[in-house]
Input
Amino acid sequence: MTKYKTVKIERRGAGWGGPMYITPTAEKPYIACCTGLAIHKVAKEIAKLTGGELRDAFRNPPPFEQMACMVTDCGGTARCEMYPSKDVPTICVFPISPPATSKLGDKLNDLLITGINSPKCVTLVEDNE
Amino acid sequence: MIDEIMEGSMRILYESTITSIGSSVQGLLDEKICIFFAENAPEELKEISVCHTHEKPPWYNFRSRDIIRIGDQELEILAIGKVAMKTFKELGHFSIKFRQRDDIENMLPGDVLVEFNGNLSLQEGMKIQVVRI
Output
């Protein structure tokens, strides 16, 4: 059985929210990525460090309840609202602020971080066992 | 006659056809937002989106004063966010905001701000064009 690891995701510049901790589980193994034509390097880094499984969420989306997190390049309206509304921790590569009109309110504090454009924003959390 | 002259000097930058209209689209239109995605988008995005064929990405980046035609309705582009063309080319994705709602100052980077008065009507099979006059 795969032993998954935890990563800490934090901004290194402009953006919103965080830090965020991601640990895939047997029930939520997928590091989903919805960033246009290519899988984003941030998603690759999260998958590499945690042991989670990368999936292109545009062409081959896993069910929400199986996503450990979602990496997106949302410009602000659609994906940065939709994925958090489904309780999926959402990591946006652009440093947007959520729209003030967002209906999700405080829920976004736990479920959205933006401005994560480099693998350097992702670090492994050593376990203390 | 005027119509013909306009037609002659107009350049079509992009064309596609609406394939589906998600169940949440009307609610977003009431808030003066309209989200587009290519028709191969996952189901959860289809719910909130107008999906369209998006066969070929546009030759040119759109700019302000270009016109988005949906059926016979014309939406004038006022401003385009920094990342809007990238996501449009790759995913057929646009977040159109109508000017009554947002001014240029509080645009998000994915937004396309347009001028359009009235209620946008959308139907499957309608043609979408972006034209430069």
